[in-house]
Amino acid sequence: MTSMTSPSPDTDGTSLFDGDPDVVPGPRRSAEGFDRVPPQDLEAERSVLGGMELSRDAIADVIEILKGREFYLPAHETIYAVIVEMYGKGEPADPITVAAELTRRGELTRVGGAPYLHALVQSVPTAANAAYYAEIVRERWKLRQAVETGTRITAMGYAQEADPEEVVESAAAELLALKASFDTGKDPAGWDTPLAELLDEWEEAQAEGENPGLPMPYSDLQSMLGTVPGHLVVVAGRPGMGKSVVLLDFMRHLAVVHGKPAAFVSLEMARRQIMNRLIAAEAEIPQHAVRTRAMDAEEWKKYDKVKNTLAQAPLRLIVPPGGITVAQIRSNLRRWAIEDRLPAALAVDYLQIVKPEAGRGANRTNEVDGIARGLKELALEFDLPIFAAAQLSRLTTATTDRVPQLSHLRESGEIEQAADAVVLLHREDYYEPESIRAGEIDLIVAKNREGSTGIVTCAFRGRFSRVDDMAQG
């Protein structure tokens, strides 16, 4: 929108606003030496306030657009706050009543006096356009915010002692915070949201029908967990128990079967190893044949049938060279958020080998605690479910039945605390190859904030690098 023109002078050569409050911030001098006034439109601000003084309907329209912070002139923000407060109390908010309230607060002179309040009304022919003027005010505020953010980022770049990676991370955080500040919708954190509004949101969600949570390849586990954005789900087991298989199954099912974007971050395998497993699982070709490049004609036919499906699946396989920290994961998620490319779920394989942040001390327990808390914070910050594999300690093998327990989570008690759900993996044939339960895997839901705990038994098809529901297996 273009800026509005300046108000016309009266016949005696004076403006209606000759009595403007003397609190207008001055122009800023740029590095090039030019005076620059931050983006603003004072006439639009006056028109908003004048319309609000004329009509209660205008007040209702404006408060849907502005919070008050958007005004360039501090006096205008003060007047706006008084009008909104009086409106909230059911009191009339005209020039006379607003002047009386400002007098009571000792602020009338600072905002220009009673004549200024009357001049605001006289400058507006109708209150019907108040929302339009409010949009102009908001646009100018957005531009000022962008200028201020850019200035801070520039200052960080010029700091001689700054670490380049920290500067980029901070800049990304500044840009995301800027984007979030433009949201004038309901307060997502709950500081200002009345319970009545939350009840309305809850009822609307209920009216949409059943929400089974994130699609999972194992139906019983899906109904038990009901995983939703913000959840951290830990899948734990001893080495070779099938953690990577299960995690890749989750992401493969999400992307290939349901067409939802998913990301699999591997800190253990090379990309070709993940691709071997992915192809073996989707085409049901023995992993050995895929790995050794010994596929026969029939197996190549199976591959050809799934090739296009895999190629079109929105699945990202990420193998960070040199490992990755929680901060680096956050940085990439921020970039995806800015580009509107966030996945529906993220898997990390595995938690204990995520790199600790530099300078956090050598205490291994504290490092793993920080990683677990960090992954949970990422799930909440970016509103997506995160699945993380975790290693169990050797204590598992010391028990009589070798069934894992929460206390066997290796190196950290914080993993259990941070996770919304913990799924422990157990296979009897891992220890006894001739067991009558050979080919079965128990997914033991040992912790579940959103529902019940219990055991889901599935078919472990290790040669194909996949796990299936028992009916499928």
UniProtKB/TrEMBL annotation:
Domain of life: Bacteria
Catalytic activity: ATP + H2O = ADP + phosphate + H(+)
Pfam families per record: DnaB (PF00772), DnaB_C (PF03796)
GO molecular function: helicase activity
Region (Disordered): 1-40
Keyword DNA-binding belongs to the record: yes
InterPro entries found in the cross-reference section: DNA_heli_DnaB-like_N_sf, DNA_helicase_DnaB-like_C, DNA_helicase_DnaB-like_N, DNA_helicase_N/primase_C, P-loop_NTPase
EC number, as in UniProt: 5.6.2.3
Feature: compositional bias, Polar residues: 1-14
Uppermost EC category: isomerase
Keywords, alphabetical: ATP-binding, DNA replication, DNA-binding, Helicase, Hydrolase, Isomerase, Nucleotide-binding
SF4 helicase domain residues: 207-473
Similarity section: Belongs to the helicase family. DnaB subfamily.
PANTHER family reported for this sequence: REPLICATIVE DNA HELICASE, REPLICATIVE DNA HELICASE DNAB
The protein's name: DNA 5'-3' helicase
Species name: Streptomyces stramineus
Protein encoded by which gene: dnaB_2
